[in-house]
Structure to design on (714 residues):
């Protein structure tokens, strides 16, 4: 279980508060107006933002004192997820310990219709293709807790449907616990088990 | 930006480019016209030629390799430990070392050699001097490249739990790879064409470079066919290499990134200790020749030195430097106009050729240009009377490549960021200059200071065109050192070094207050 307990974060002079639990293996959609602190919550769980108060527990262990590298988290940032000087395949292969599951990655690329982009550099890809590449890596990394910050923002309706289905299937297949920031209620309907509305 | 650049600026640009090219053309014309037999190609199979060619290549290769290899760990230490004491001063010291007049360095090294009873003559001394001048420059370039790594890359690497080796391979190395090649080529060319250092610390066919051999061929034998042949070889090797490096290397010399560095890794434990040690060791090494000069001053006998004798050479040095720097900057800026247009139009081959022409003075043998021009002008002008004017003009042509190299990336950056916007706003001429100037001003000022200090350190050109009446400070040092008056040489060297440091400091201050 992910337990966010009385968490308080100061951001731009504003105090943001969070307090909720999420069962392991579930997908939580995080919604709310811009500036309400959705991305900040993900950053705090990943360890990029230090809370002023409160605790973050994962399966009973407190994450607060752990550095980013030791947290069981795979994080899709809103932007800058790819190294521009590496090929798409090289980018996708990062973040795995031991052998890279190349076949699984290739299969996912096939499903998300980016299989013919693997040898290219990210600069040659469209925004939507870049987002799908980053999404594949984030979902398939061997971390139990997945944080997705607006993962479908750049996608057209058809690809969006494809990607949302794939995210849900993959999360369920590998038993991932997912927190997903989104502004779209259709993403919530398609992917999420629960929804958290921040205000 | 410049697809429709205004015609007068374009014309001025072409004129500037022609002027710089004509200096070299006239120089070669002078030598070729004087000698009826042309270059002495028979020398190509001569053992003497082989030995100086091998030595020129060997010392340049080793100097460039060692400068780049030693600079890298120190630049990393600076990047990863930005709060280390004396950080800013160290970067300033690096700049000062790079532009340090060679005679000041040679005096410092010779005095240091005496203190420690080291022999600094031959390959070792030449390498030491070349590394001393170029390693600090490489440190600055590497440091600025590393500073250009976006914070988002480090953040991503932490999230992806990349190992140290992966960070090095995926983030650090790609950021400096292109620059390393460019830097290596640049330092190689500078060392390949090195004159004063090899003349002072080398000697004999075993440690003579092509440039010094040209000087010797002209000065002792006035053997123009031999000098011409050596000059062509030097031009072909240095010029060819520079062209290749310009084509394949990519050096973003001025990529100062002021963005957040919240996620830049901060080494701990023994790694931090190692980095700190290399940083403090670099401080020590760079300060040694300066410390030697200071000690030379304290222990020196100045009974024969009248301080007033330094006043006039100082004034002449500053005036000549200002003249060359001002004209050099104007030429560099204007000749970059047509080149920027080629860049904007994506004409990369043309651009590389014209960039090469704009910076060719870097690879053209300075001695050949000076002597060739001397012969060319001998029949046309009273050189005894006008020699000092040519010292100033030739120094201008020598500093132009440095000005071009420093200004170019900033101007390309302006074109990339604001070129289309400027065009859509129909900004031209003065209106365009008003928005361009604040953008390039910091780089312009630092470049001005750099070329001013470089011009103030000249000895080679003065040795051909100069006269007693117009003695400069570097020439005075040369005269003192040549007559073993090391205390006086140390005094004049310290004065010149202090002047250079003051100029760099003043311009850096002006740059910071304008930022």
């Amino acid at each position: 279980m992910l337990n966010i307990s009385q968490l308080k974060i100061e951001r731009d002079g504003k105090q943001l508060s969070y307090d909720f639990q999420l069962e392991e293996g579930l997908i939580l959609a995080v919604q709310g107006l811009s500036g309400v602190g959705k991305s900040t919550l993900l950053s705090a769980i990943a360890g990029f933002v230090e809370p002023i108060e409160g605790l973050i527990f994962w399966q009973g262990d407190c994450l607060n004192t752990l550095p980013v590298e030791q947290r069981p988290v795979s994080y899709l940032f809103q932007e800058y997820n790819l190294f521009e000087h590496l090929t798409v395949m090289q980018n996708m292969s990062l973040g795995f310990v031991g052998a890279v599951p190349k076949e699984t990655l290739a299969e996912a690329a096939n499903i998300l219709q980016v299989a013919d982009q693997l040898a290219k550099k990210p600069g040659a890809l469209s925004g939507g293709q870049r987002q799908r590449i980053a999404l594949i890596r984030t979902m398939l990394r061997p971390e139990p807790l997945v944080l997705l910050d607006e993962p479908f923002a750049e996608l057209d309706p058809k690809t969006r449907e494809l990607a949302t289905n794939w995210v849900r299937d993959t999360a369920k297949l590998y038993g991932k616990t997912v927190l997903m920031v989104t502004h779209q209620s259709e993403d919530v309907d398609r992917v999420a088990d629960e929804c958290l509305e921040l205000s | 930006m410049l697809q429709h650049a205004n015609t007068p600026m374009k014309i001025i640009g072409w004129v500037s480019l022609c002027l710089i090219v004509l200096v070299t053309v006239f120089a070669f014309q002078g030598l070729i016209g004087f000698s009826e037999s042309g270059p002495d190609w028979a020398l190509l199979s001569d053992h003497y030629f082989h030995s100086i060619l091998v030595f020129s290549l060997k010392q340049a290769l080793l100097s460039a390799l060692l400068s780049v290899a030693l600079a890298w760990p120190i630049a990393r230490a600076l990047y990863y430990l930005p709060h280390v004491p004396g950080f800013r001063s160290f970067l300033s010291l690096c700049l000062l070392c790079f532009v340090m007049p060679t005679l000041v360095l040679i005096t410092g090294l010779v005095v240091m050699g005496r203190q420690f009873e080291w022999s600094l003559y031959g390959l070792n001394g030449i390498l030491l001097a070349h590394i001393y001048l170029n390693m600090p420059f490489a440190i600055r370039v590497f440091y600025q490249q590393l500073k250009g790594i976006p914070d988002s890359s480090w953040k991503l690497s932490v999230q992806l739990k990349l190992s140290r080796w992966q960070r090095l391979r995926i983030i650090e190395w790609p950021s400096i790879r292109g620059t390393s090649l460019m830097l290596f080529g640049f330092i190689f060319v500078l060392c390949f064409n090195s004159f004063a250092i090899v003349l002072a610390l080398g000697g004999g066919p075993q440690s003579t470079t092509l440039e010094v051999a040209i000087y010797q061929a002209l000065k002792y034998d006035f053997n123009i066919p031999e000098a011409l042949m050596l000059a062509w070889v030097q031009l072909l090797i240095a010029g060819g290499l520079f062209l290749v490096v310009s084509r394949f290397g990519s050096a973003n010399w001025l990529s100062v990134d002021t963005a957040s560095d919240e996620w830049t890794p901060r080494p701990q434990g023994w790694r931090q200790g190692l980095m700190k040690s290399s940083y403090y060791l670099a401080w020590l090494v760079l300060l040694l020749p300066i410390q030697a000069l200071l000690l030379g001053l304290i222990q020196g006998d100045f009974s024969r030195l009248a301080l007033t004798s330094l006043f006039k050479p100082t004034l002449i040095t500053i005036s000549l430097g200002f003249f060359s720097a001002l004209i050099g900057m104007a030429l560099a800026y204007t000749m970059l106009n047509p080149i920027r247009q080629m860049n904007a139009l994506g004409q990369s081959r043309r651009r590389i050729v014209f960039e090469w022409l704009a910076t060719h003075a870097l690879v053209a043998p300075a001695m050949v240009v000076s002597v060739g021009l001397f012969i060319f002008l001998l029949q046309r002008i009273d050189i005894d009377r006008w020699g000092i004017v040519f010292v100033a003009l030739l120094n201008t042509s020598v500093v132009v490549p440095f000005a071009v190299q420093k200004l170019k990336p900033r101007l390309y950056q302006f074109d990339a960021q604001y070129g289309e916007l400027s065009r859509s706003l129909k900004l031209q001429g003065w209106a365009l200059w008003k928005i361009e100037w604040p953008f390039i001003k910091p780089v312009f000022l630092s470049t001005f200071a750099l070329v001013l200090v470089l011009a103030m350190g000249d000895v080679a050109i003065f040795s051909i065109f100069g006269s007693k009446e117009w003695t400069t400070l570097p020439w005075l040092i040369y005269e003192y050192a040549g007559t073993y008056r090391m205390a006086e040489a140390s005094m004049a060297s310290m004065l010149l070094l202090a002047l250079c440091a003051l100029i760099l400091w003043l311009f850096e201050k002006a740059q910071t207050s304008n930022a």
